[in-house]
Amino acid sequence: MSSAHRGSHSTERVHVVDALRALALLGILSVNIWFFAHPQMLLGLRGDSVETSADQLVRFGSSLIFEGKSYVIFSFLFGLSFVLAWGRAHQSGASERRRSLRRFSALILLGLLHGLFLFAGDILLAYGVLGFILLGMRRVSARAALITAAVLYAALVGFLLFLGVISWAVGDALDGTTMMGDPAAAREAFTGPAAQWLGFQLGVYPLVQISVLFGQGPLALAVFLLGLVVGRARLIERIAAGELSTGRLLGMGLPALAAGLVLSTMAALLAWGPPGSTDHHPGMGGELLGTALNLAAGPIQAFGYVVLLLVLFRSAVPLTRLLAPAGRMSLTNYLTQSVVMVILFAGVGFGLAGELSELAVGGTVLAIWAAQLVISHLWFARFARGPLEAPLRAWTYAGSRD
User: Fold this and answer.
1) Distance CA 53, CA 37 (A)
2) Which of 163, 185, 304, 309 is the most exposed place for a label (fewest CB within 10 A)?
3) DSSP 142-201
4) Is residue 341 within 8 Å of 356, Cβ to Cβ?
5) How far, rounded to the nearest angstrom, does the alpha carbon of residue 269 sit from its chain's CA centroid?
6) Sequence-distant contacts of 248-255: CB under 8 A, at least 24 apart
7) Does the keyword Transmembrane helix apply (predicted)?
8) pLDDT at 88
9) pLDDT for 167-205, tens place per residue?
């Protein structure tokens, strides 16, 4: 048995993983919605200035709690699920490699469609491309996987910190607005007629995807590898089964969460100023340093989240049951979030970009996510798999024994 299969004996669905995905969906929505509410952000420009202390606290809180952390949890679960899927294929006698190739190819296609026609900041394309790298590294030792992950993390964070310090030192001599576009023009295009909106989408897509692939991509791959190691060791199942004591888990999760929050607080202060500030302008150097600190905090804080949530789920089974259905159809829910946000904010819908306060945007996040929890429960009362999960599974399993 290869190292990719070692320890992956159970094919039962791990419901705490689905619950983690459901909460990660909340975080993804809390971060992505700002690119719809302030479409100039897709050009790398800052969103509109906040008008009240409540608005500033919403942005500050979104940065502190979710930014740079939610997609890390999704990436970790992607690597973990790769091990689970690999084990299921091995047990059924199917071609593990064939299934992976088909799944990652489908993610690339879905990512292209999502990125071009809904949200230029799509992550599925990157996951599909990086999935092929993960497939090639599936038999790497745990030690090599952890070293590779650490090198990717350190290189990315170090590079961004270097850029931020240099930009800070030169006093933001370059004007980001003149370099990258006009916020008002971006908003006008995004809220214009369908052809104008589509033109904006197609125009920003290459720029945004370069940022995703070479900015978020290395960190996502690093966390894929962490998920690979954890999946092989069956740590999630062992924690859910109570094999690791609560005291030991708290001893790991609480320090990680505290360290991550310190870095995230520094990042939020750079980006948004102290709580209550409504006139903070960090400049390009501050933005880059804040981004670097958020990336640095991401895996650390996400580790704290995951460990502490697993402790919570172990003693709060009703909470796991409440959240799990949304995580079971996370692909459907992720793409549906973009559909809803296009309808709300783009010109092909209600055209609310630039119109809602930050507080109203935060309320919209909670409303969408709560609706997804309810709809997911209703869906699984009648169907075995999510609307997009079913055809993706059929494509993945086509031509192989199950």
Assistant:
1) 18
2) 185
3) HHHHHHHHHHHHHHHHHHHHHHHHHHHHTTS-S-HHHHH--HHHHHHHHTS-HHHHHHHH
4) no
5) 22
6) 249/307, 249/308, 249/310, 249/311, 250/308, 250/311, 252/303, 252/307, 253/303, 253/304, 253/306, 253/307, 253/308, 253/311, 254/304, 254/308, 255/304
7) yes
8) 75
9) 777 765 444 444 456 788 889 999 999 999 999 999 999
